[in-house]
Each structure stands twice: as structure tokens, then as C-alpha cells.
Amino acid sequence: MRSYRTLFRTPEYAPFLLSFAAHAAAQTIGGLALATLVYRATGSPLLSAVSMFGPQLAQMLGAAFLLSGADRLPPRAILTVISLAFAAGTAVLALPQLPVWAVFVVLLLQGLVASLGGGVRGGLLNEILPKDGYVLGRSVFNMLWGLVQITGFAAGGALLELLTPRACLLLAAACYVASALVNHLGLTPRPPRSAGRPSFSATWRTNALLWSSRPRRLAYLGLWVPNGLVVGGDSLYVSYAPAAAGTMYACGALGMFVGDLAIGRLVPPALRPRLATPLRLLLATPYLLFVLRPSPALSAVAAAVASVGFAASLVLQERLMALTPDDLAGQALGLHTTGMVALQGIGAVVAGTLAQLTSPATAITLMATASIAVTLTLFLLERRHGPDEAVPDLPAPLPTPRQTRP
Predict the structure, then answer these.
(1) Is residue 246 classed exposed, middle or buried when 0-12, 13-18 and 19+ CB atoms within 10 A define those classes?
(2) Torsion sign across C-alpha atoms 267, 270, 272, 275
(3) For the chain, is the Cβ count within 10 Å smaller at the N or the C terminus?
(4) What is d(CA 207, CA 36) in angstroms, rounded to the nearest whole number?
């Protein structure tokens, strides 16, 4: 599948994107508003960064207990419940005089709920689209995320000039409710992809099976670590240039959009595997400029150029899907999403700590340097052993082979 026309004729793809767009708009507007609220209340780059990206740390815990639900729960129902849970939590965050510690309790709970979202969406997308349409469909999904971030952060920055952060949080809660409605009305009820109950043992067993293959491990590490380090640096935009943070995030989202468009639509499939390392290097290298403490305008340009490198995730996700059985696609993509956002949360904590000890500019530079070092190390490991060596079939994740495909 190489045509956008054919892609959008696929049943359920448009409502799938629309529900995600509403959810993503809520995340961008609400995340920027909350980071601004916490920074104004505490003056701490660390707490501001953690308030925006820290909930992703909780997804590591959720992945250990809940991730098997990505393939063992009905996708429409669980996506609707996730959006409604986020709406309720965001409304609580908007309460006046809410203590900072209570903010982080709510964010912890939201992170636990979110640990299911990536796997459920990824598995559902894998069902909605034919095999040859996955990369194009996923690139449009990522491009939409970029467009929503551009408009969401730009709109969020403008709204913060007109409204209070708490009013912006209530607007984000309304967007989550809209996402839940689109999920319920626009998606077809489907049975779970696999039989059995979600449980800690099933989650842990399947995660261990997915991690047992060396090619998959390298793919996961390539998806998680360079990305997480760079996003950790991005979490410092609010403390680096408070008045221009929305613009910097929007420019970064524009770069991500351009990269996903190029990889998904313009780059031939045979060339894509060769671009994983160059794109990961591009993701970090422009941030080395921050050692010179550039102006907000130049910083926004650097963010836009660097964010083209986020398209490396498309290449690596395609590799991951080629190495994974279909009946584990949801949990495999859920593990990817959870690991990625968890590393982003860890990156935000590390970057915020470095900024407290040095400065936001120095911390951004150090995070970019670490990302480049990790990318080069993974490249050497892949060259030494080969990223696409044969992978043995996975055994069933349950003691008895009860998995089913609808």
C-alpha cells in the first residue's frame, strides 16, 4: 500500500486517527499547562520537567502488571475507558490549591492507566491495516501526532497568555472526553486478539519472551534510549526559555512531521533499513548547539531539524514487527511504547537534575552527547552480530495454546 487514498479508504482508519488526535491534543495542551503551573509554583526545572514527562515513569510499573491486557482486552472498550480516566484525572489537576505532591499522585495514576494505551492502539492499528500498509499507516499516525503537537503547543502557548493554566487543563479534559466519544461511536467492537486473562504472570512471561531474542533487544534499545535521552533534554524548554517554550515544542513537532512524511511516503522500502542510524544521529546532533546558549529563535530551528530524526522509530518499528509473531503484536508494540515513554521520563529526571546542578543549556547538551554515544554503540553491536539474524518462533505465552485471532 503506497497511496494515501487507498489508506483512508480502509474502514475505521479515519475514526482511529480522529480519536487519537483528540487524545494527543489533550496531552499537549494539558502537559504544557501543567508544566507551567508547576514551574510558577516551585521555580524548579526538575519538578517542571517531571510534571510534563514524569508520568511516563509510572508506565514501567504498569507494563509489569497490565501490559498483557493489550492483546487480551477488547480494544474499543479499553481505549474509551483510558480516555475517560485521563479526563477525570486532568479535571482533578485543575482544582485550585491542589498541593504539588497531590499533582504527582494523580500523574502516577495516569501513567499506570496509560501503560495499556500504546499497546492497544498499536495492536488495533495492526488489525485495521493490511500488512503492506503498516508503515504508511503508522507514518500518517506519527505525522498526525506531529501536527497535533504543532497546533497543540502553539495553541497552548497562546491560551496561557489568555487563560490560567487551570482553565487550560479543563480544556484538555474536554478533549479527552471527545476522544472517548469517537472511540465508542467510530470503532467496531472487536474481541481480544488472545485468550486468557490479563495478569502479572502473563505480562511478565510474554515480555521475557519478547526480550529473549537478541535482534529484538537491539531494536527495542534503539527505539528507547536515544529517543529518551533527547526527549529528556526537550523537557527543559520551559526552564530554558519560558516565553518561547510553546514555539520550540511546535517547531520540534514540525520537524517530526517532515521526517515521518519522508520515511512513510517518499523513501523506498529497500532504503529504509539503512536510515535507522543516520536518523538517530540527526535526532541528537543539532542539540550540541546548546552549549553556546543560542537564542530562542535559533533554538527552535535546532529543535525542528533534530526532530526529523524521530522518523527512525518507523524504521525500527517495521523491523520489530518483522521479528514478532502476529498474535503478540499488541504486547510487542505496548512494550515498545512503554519502554520508550519510561526512558523519556527517566531522561526528564536526569536532565532536570543536571539543569539544577548546572544550567538547562548545559543539561540539553549533555543529554544529546549521551544519545549520540548510545546510537554509535548500538550501530557497532548491530554490525558485529547483524540486526536481522534468524529468530526462533516464540512459544505461547500461556501454559496452554489458547490464543485466537479474530
Answers:
(1) buried
(2) negative
(3) C
(4) 36
Which of 220, 224, 227, 208 shows the shortest CA–CA distance to 64?
Answer: 208
Question: 56 is written with which cell numbers?
Answer: 511516563
Cβ neighbours of residue 278 closer than 8 Å, sequence gap 6 or more: none
Q: 138-189: per-residue pLDDT in tens?
A: 778 877 877 787 787 778 878 888 889 999 999 999 999 999 999 999 898 8
- Other Cβ atoms less than 10 A from the Cβ of 174: the count is 16
What's the burial of 300, exposed, middle or buried (CB within 10 Å: 0-12/13-18/19+)? buried
Prediction pTM value: 0.66
Cell numbers at residue 221, please?
534499545
Gap between the Cα atoms of 209 and 393, Å rounded: 10
Question: Measuring CA to CA, which residue among 264, 261, 259, 258 is closest to residue 280?
Answer: 259
Burial of 64 (0-12, 13-18, 19+ CB in 10 A): middle
- pLDDT tens per residue across span 357-367: 999 999 999 99
Phi, psi of 134 (to 5 degrees): -65, -50
Alpha carbon distance 381, 53 (integer Å): 30
CA 178 to chain centre: 20
